[in-house]
UniProtKB/TrEMBL annotation:
One Pfam assignment: DUF4200
Entry keywords, A to Z: Coiled coil
Membrane-spanning parts: none
Keyword Calcium annotated: no
InterPro entries registered for this protein in UniProt: CFAP_domain-containing (IPR051147), DUF4200 (IPR025252)
GO cellular component: cytoskeleton
Record carries keyword Transmembrane: no
Species the sequence originates in: Symbiodinium natans
Protein name: FAP73 protein
Region (Disordered) location: 264-291
Domain DUF4200: residue ranges: 29-146
Length: 336
């Protein structure tokens, strides 16, 4: 790490950059190449340092992976041990619960049987009492059989009574079913009537809501149409203003390049780089607006270069008026 820190201290963060005033483009190009080589050397040193650190990190990662595998194996063994103990505990608890359930079941069966025995004794006593009470009805049926010639046995009287009682029950049930059916039909009619009324009300409300939505949509459409017209007019004004700007830039560019033919800033390396960027943009399929904008930007750069030259000429003329012959010679040489 100390070596790495030393390498970091030895590598400069930025290449040394020299500033020259009034140098030609060739000198500037050589300076740019020198800076490029310095940056390339710095990048190579950083790549070597990063490769060394990456190797160290890879070794540490391998050690951590081995330790992780060991911990995983120990964890698997411990987990298996816990699972075996848990399975044994669950089996023991399950066996104990089953035995307790069986004991409880047997106790419940004993209690049920005792209760059934008591119920049977109570039922037997009740039946004995009921038999004693019903003996008078048997005596009455014997008397009816003896006084009436229509029935020869008591069973015929009981059977006739059962038949009539069954018919009465059937008729009562039929009457109750009929009344229930009538009530259901009446309720269904009332429900159907209410549903139809509610449906008609919902349809009226829906028609009113749709009418309101239609009015709002028409208003919105008119508003959007108005906004579209305004956007179209504004776009037309912007296009006209942009065309005027392009024509002004083109006129200034032509005035600078045609009236000062001995100075060709349009062929400087800066302009060549701009042209290369423009060609790359064209390869990517930019539209005509982007092309016009890039062309105007390049022309403005050329105009800026001419303005800088004009500013330097004015400064030189001021120096000449003040009596600086060296500046005057340089200005005259530059103008020629």
């Amino acid at each position: 790490m100390a070596g790495a820190d030393g390498e970091r201290g030895a590598i400069p963060k930025h290449p040394q950059q020299l500033f020259f005033d009034n140098v030609n483009p060739a000198t500037r190009l050589l300076e740019k190449r020198r800076q490029m080589y310095e940056v390339q050397d710095a990048l190579e040193n950083q790549k070597a340092r990063f490769a060394k650190e990456e190797d160290q990190f890879r070794k540490k990662e391998e050690q951590l992976r081995v330790k992780d595998l060991q911990l995983q194996n120990q964890l698997v063994k411990f987990n298996k041990f816990l699972q075996d103990n848990e399975a044994k505990r669950q089996r023991s608890e399950k066996r104990a619960a089953e035995e307790a359930a069986q004991i409880k079941q047997k106790d419940d069966e004993i209690l049920d049987l005792e209760k059934q025995l008591e119920d049977s004794k109570a039922l037997c006593s009740k039946l004995e009492e009921e038999k004693d009470r019903n003996m008078k009805y048997e005596e009455f049926l014997e008397l009816v059989k003896e006084t009436c010639d229509d029935y020869a046995e008591i069973s015929e009287i009981v059977e006739r009574h059962s038949t009539l009682e069954g018919a009465n029950i059937d008729l009562s049930e039929l009457q109750a079913d009929s009344e229930t059916r009538i009530e259901e039909l009446r309720n269904q009619f009332q429900i159907y009537k209410k549903e139809q009324e509610m449906e008609m009300m919902e349809l009226r409300n829906k028609v009113a809501i749709l009418q309101i939505e239609l009015d709002e949509c028409q208003k919105k459409r008119q508003q959007l149409q108005h906004e579209f017209d305004e956007v179209t007019q504004e776009d037309s004004r912007d296009s006209l203003f942009f065309g005027q700007i392009l024509m002004s830039v083109e006129n200034l560019f032509l005035r600078c390049t045609t009236k000062r033919k001995n100075i060709q800033h349009a062929q400087t390396p800066v302009d060549d780089e701009s042209k290369q960027e423009g060609e790359d943009g064209q390869d990517q399929g930019e539209d005509s607006f982007r092309k016009k904008k890039d062309n105007a930007a390049r022309q403005l750069k050329v105009i800026l270069a001419y303005l800088k030259d004009f500013k330097e000429i004015c400064e030189i003329l001021r120096k000449e008026r003040r009596g600086d012959p060296m500046r005057v010679k340089l200005a005259r040489a530059w103008c020629t």
